[in-house]
Automatic annotation (TrEMBL):
<comment type="similarity">
    <text>Belongs to the 'phage' integrase family.</text>
</comment>
<dbReference type="InterPro" id="IPR013762">
    <property type="entry name" value="Integrase-like_cat_sf"/>
</dbReference>
<dbReference type="InterPro" id="IPR010998">
    <property type="entry name" value="Integrase_recombinase_N"/>
</dbReference>
<dbReference type="Pfam" id="PF13356">
    <property type="entry name" value="Arm-DNA-bind_3"/>
</dbReference>
<keyword id="KW-0238">DNA-binding</keyword>
<protein>
    <submittedName>
        <fullName>Site-specific integrase</fullName>
    </submittedName>
</protein>
<dbReference type="InterPro" id="IPR038488">
    <property type="entry name" value="Integrase_DNA-bd_sf"/>
</dbReference>
<dbReference type="InterPro" id="IPR002104">
    <property type="entry name" value="Integrase_catalytic"/>
</dbReference>
<keyword id="KW-0229">DNA integration</keyword>
<feature type="domain" description="Tyr recombinase">
    <location>
        <begin position="239"/>
        <end position="408"/>
    </location>
</feature>
<dbReference type="InterPro" id="IPR025166">
    <property type="entry name" value="Integrase_DNA_bind_dom"/>
</dbReference>
<keyword id="KW-0233">DNA recombination</keyword>
<dbReference type="InterPro" id="IPR044068">
    <property type="entry name" value="CB"/>
</dbReference>
<dbReference type="InterPro" id="IPR050090">
    <property type="entry name" value="Tyrosine_recombinase_XerCD"/>
</dbReference>
<dbReference type="InterPro" id="IPR011010">
    <property type="entry name" value="DNA_brk_join_enz"/>
</dbReference>
<feature type="domain" description="Core-binding (CB)">
    <location>
        <begin position="95"/>
        <end position="183"/>
    </location>
</feature>
<dbReference type="Pfam" id="PF00589">
    <property type="entry name" value="Phage_integrase"/>
</dbReference>
Length: 411
């Protein structure tokens, strides 16, 4: 007996062969069928030109309910425009028969890249390059030859090279996404990468600066600033002697370049590096003392507002005076955002003597400082832009006095 409810992983787990079908409550026509074999497949039902069609989206073992629901919406959108997606798939399969199975790289170049560009042109090239770079071992393989064992071998090789489990998981998930699209488009009947289980690892690294390390970093910044000012003075003296125009006198400005204001903002807002480098001056409201992380630049794809403390606000005001004509807060030139800070950051870190500290750890430093100052975890979650509290809970142990106070409430 079919049931009507939102299709989720738990709903699929509870679905019996007797019930056979779940009709989704969010997308009309989207449903999941369970067969006697135990397999579950997603379908979307539609009518076109008087014809009733049940279009197969894919197996529950290959794609999640959310992915299947999104694809159901896509297909229904095509139907509304007059496309019979079932016939389109049949035609695609006929075309593919002449090619048999596509070569992995050819699929990425001729099919998957086109799809990615239609979704997000900014990230398409990065994703394709990542897949080619990470999975060079599949360059000569056809899609149907990429099986779970091949990926397991690749993964073991990466682990032996010392690559982090989180990095490996991200690459495998990117590959799974590409392979699932190949299934949807009828290029291959199925793939078995769902058998490649996610590597489990401790993802609770919290690295923040101690008082001593913070002093070391500040001292290194001051030394770097003085060095750059001295070099500018020497260069200007050289130009003055030769009757050439002098560059800006760095003794007359607050910041010698982008690095110090970037660090100040990272430490006092908790923004990710990508969010910082994509910031525009139009995203900052100094009078209201806040900045906006645009959805297009946020990891969660949701915009958020981050309030600015006195330190961050002061740094931005000084930096704005030095960059009055720039669109982006941190620029490589007058028009384009800064893309790479690795060299300057690594040199500063080496000079400071602080070890085992990445630029991303400023985000941990920000969150840890808030928690140790007594800020509740949900507020920290909102400031960090975490989609749920699970990620933020890693900082909970930094507030032991809160736990003690909670226990004392019933003492």
């Amino acid at each position: 007996m079919p049931i009507k409810k939102k299709i989720t992983n738990s709903a699929l787990k509870d679905l019996t062969v007797e019930q056979r079908r779940i009709n989704d409550t969010e997308v009309s026509g989207f449903h999941a069928l369970k067969f006697a074999s135990g397999k579950i497949a997603y379908y979307v039902y539609y009518r076109i030109d008087g014809k009733q069609v049940n279009f197969k989206i894919g197996l529950a073992s290959d794609i999640s309910p959310a992915q299947a629901r999104d694809r159901a919406r896509e297909k229904l959108g095509e139907v509304v425009k007059g496309t019979d997606v079932q016939e389109s798939r049949k035609q695609a399969r006929i075309e593919q028969k002449s090619e048999k199975y596509l070569n992995f790289y050819k699929f990425l170049d001729t099919k998957y890249s086109v799809f990615l560009k239609s979704r997000n042109p900014k990230t398409a090239h990065t994703i394709i390059s990542h897949l080619k770079s990470m999975f060079k071992c599949f360059k000569a393989k056809n899609l149907n030859e990429i099986d779970a064992w091949s990926v397991e071998q690749w993964r073991n090789d990466r682990l032996e090279l010392g690559r982090k489990p989180s990095t490996i998981n991200a690459s495998v998930n990117t590959l799974k996404g590409a392979m699932s699209r190949a299934v949807e488009w009828g290029i291959i009947d199925s793939h078995e990468l769902h058998k490649v289980k996610t590597l489990k690892f401790d993802n609770t690294r919290i690295r923040y600066l101690s008082t001593e390390e913070l002093a070391q970093l500040n001292e290194a910044i001051l030394e770097r600033n003085q060095l750059l000012r001295d070099k500018r003075d020497s260069a200007n003296e050289h130009r003055r002697i030769r009757g050439r125009d002098e560059h800006t006198d760095l003794k007359k400005v607050r910041f010698v370049d982008y690095l110090e204001p970037l660090i100040i903002l990272a430490m006092n807002t908790g923004l990710r590096r990508g969010e910082l480098l994509s910031l525009k001056w139009s995203d900052i409201t100094t009078r209201g003392r806040y900045l906006t992380v645009r959805a297009s630049n946020a990891k969660s794809s949701k915009s958020r507002v981050v309030h600015l403390n006195d330190t961050a606000l002061s740094a931005l005001r000084y930096w704005k005076k030095q960059n009055t004509k720039c669109e982006f807060v941190f620029t490589a030139d007058m028009e384009n955002p800064l893309a790479d800070i690795k060299k300057a950051w690594n040199n500063l870190l080496a000079k400071s003597g602080v070890t085992d500290f990445r630029f991303h750890d400023f985000r941990h430093h920000f969150a840890s400082s808030l928690v140790m100052a007594g800020v509740d975890l949900n507020t920290v979650r909102e400031l960090l832009g975490h989609s749920d509290l699970k990620m933020t809970l890693r900082y909970a142990h930094l507030a032991p006095e809160h736990k003690a106070a909670a226990v004392n409430l019933i003492g």
